[in-house]
């Protein structure tokens, strides 16, 4: 008989905790009730990656893995879902193989940019119901991460010139951090909510992107036209 792996052992422990006669708390949980723990554990993993030790990383990866296994066990016993961790793994394996034709197929891709371009094309084929490059972007992302994501999408459709000179030049994250903090401090001193202000601006940006997509479907975008990079950012004083 094959020796049970440590991963199989964790799956079995999770199943026992949730089974009749196991832990009452575990048995009562739902996908929805666990969301806050998934978010918390994810941020703890981020902290471990950025500032933690090897042991911290090992522990926090385990906590996130446990969340995945817990949700899969829930699904295995929920009517209308009925998949388990093996189905999750099989789906992810198929996805990774399909998204990497340059590794598992005959396609030749030389650069990381080539890989990203093909990845986006394959994702569009896999999800034909999506009509916008914004579809699938979680709005609950931290606002700075969401801003970075949306600016990338804006550049992809020619709404933003990614190569244009920046109005606020910064050479490193060591310079960028204090600048961002100074902006937040200035907003706070004036009674303004920096988070709300950025999210409001991002909603406007998303509207611009969707409008540009509609225009592009009617008139294909010409990257050499004078209309490229229509998003304007305020210059630094």
From TrEMBL:
Signal sequence segment: none
Span of domain NTP pyrophosphohydrolase MazG-like: 29-104
Coiled-coil features, chain-numbered ranges: none
GO MF annotation, one: nucleoside triphosphate diphosphatase activity
Pfam families attached to this UniProt entry: MazG
Gene Ontology biological process: dATP catabolic process; dGTP catabolic process; dTTP catabolic process; dUTP catabolic process; response to stress; TTP catabolic process; UTP catabolic process
PANTHER family named in the record: NUCLEOSIDE TRIPHOSPHATE PYROPHOSPHOHYDROLASE (PTHR30522)
Protein name (Swiss-Prot/TrEMBL): NTP pyrophosphohydrolase MazG-like domain-containing protein
């Amino acid at each position: 008989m094959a020796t049970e792996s440590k991963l199989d052992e964790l799956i079995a422990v999770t199943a026992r905790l949730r089974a009749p006669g196991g832990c009452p708390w575990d048995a009562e949980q739902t996908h929805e009730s666990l969301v806050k723990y998934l978010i918390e554990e994810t941020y703890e993993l981020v902290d471990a990656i950025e500032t933690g030790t090897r042991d911290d990383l090992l522990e926090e990866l385990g906590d996130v893995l446990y969340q995945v296994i817990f949700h899969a066990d829930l699904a295995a016993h929920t009517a209308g879902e009925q998949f388990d961790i093996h189905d999750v793994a099989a789906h992810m394996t198929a996805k990774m193989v399909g998204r990497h034709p340059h590794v598992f197929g005959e396609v030749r891709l030389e650069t990381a940019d080539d890989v990203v371009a093909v990845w986006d094309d394959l994702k569009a084929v896999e999800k034909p119901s999506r009509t916008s490059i914004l579809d699938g972007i979680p709005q609950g992302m931290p606002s700075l991460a969401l801003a970075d994501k949306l600016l990338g999408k804006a550049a992809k459709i020619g709404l933003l010139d990614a190569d244009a000179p920046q109005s606020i030049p910064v050479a490193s994250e060591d310079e960028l951090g204090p600048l961002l903090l100074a902006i937040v401090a200035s907003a706070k001193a004036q009674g303004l909510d920096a988070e709300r202000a950025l999210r409001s601006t991002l909603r406007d940006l998303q509207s611009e992107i969707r409008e540009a997509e509609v225009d592009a479907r009617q008139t294909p975008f010409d990257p050499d036209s004078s209309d490229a990079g229509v998003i304007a950012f305020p210059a630094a004083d």
